[in-house]
Amino acid sequence: MTSSTDLASAPLGTSLTLVGIDDAANRRRLATLGLREGATFRLLTRTIGGGRIVLVGGSRIALSRDLVHRLRTRVA
């Protein structure tokens, strides 16, 4: 079993599985974008401000630096 890490520490270009969201306020918004626990996505880019761009079901989604630290992932 692979341990989880926050999205900020995940390697670029890898497929990841979302294992937890430590932000109840944004959980519903992320779910509507396809990022819910158990979802598989790909980490595409790190932004200058510390955010990330991920590919979820064919859509690119930009995530803020603060939110990136609240998403727990593991390599898929």
Give short descriptive properties of this protein.
six-stranded antiparallel sheet; 6 strands; 76 residues; SH3 type barrels; 2 helices; mainly beta; globular
Account of the 3D structure:
The protein is mostly beta strands and 76 residues long. The protein has helices at residues 27-32, 65-68; strands at 5-6, 15-21, 40-46, 52-56, 59-63, 71-75. It has one domain (5-75): Ferrous iron transport protein A (FeoA) (SH3 type barrels, Roll), CATH 2.30.30. The protein contains two helices and six strands.
Topology overview:
Blueprint: E1 5-6, E2 15-21, H1 27-32, E3 40-46, E4 52-56, E5 59-63, H2 65-68, E6 71-75
Antiparallel strand pairs: 1-6, 2-3, 2-6, 3-4, 4-5
Described by the principal axes of the CA atoms, the overall outline is globular
The CATH top-level class label: Mainly Beta
Q: Which radius of gyration do the C-alpha atoms yield? A: 11 Å
The CATH topology annotation reads as SH3 type barrels
Identify the CATH architecture.
Answer: Roll
Which class of secondary structure composition applies to the elements?
mainly beta
Q: What summary fits the major beta sheet?
A: 6 strands, antiparallel
Helix count? 2
Query: Which consecutive residue ranges, at least 5 long each, have pLDDT under 50?
Result: none
Strand order of the largest sheet: 1-6-2-3-4-5
Strand coverage percent: 35-45%
Distance between the termini: 11 Å
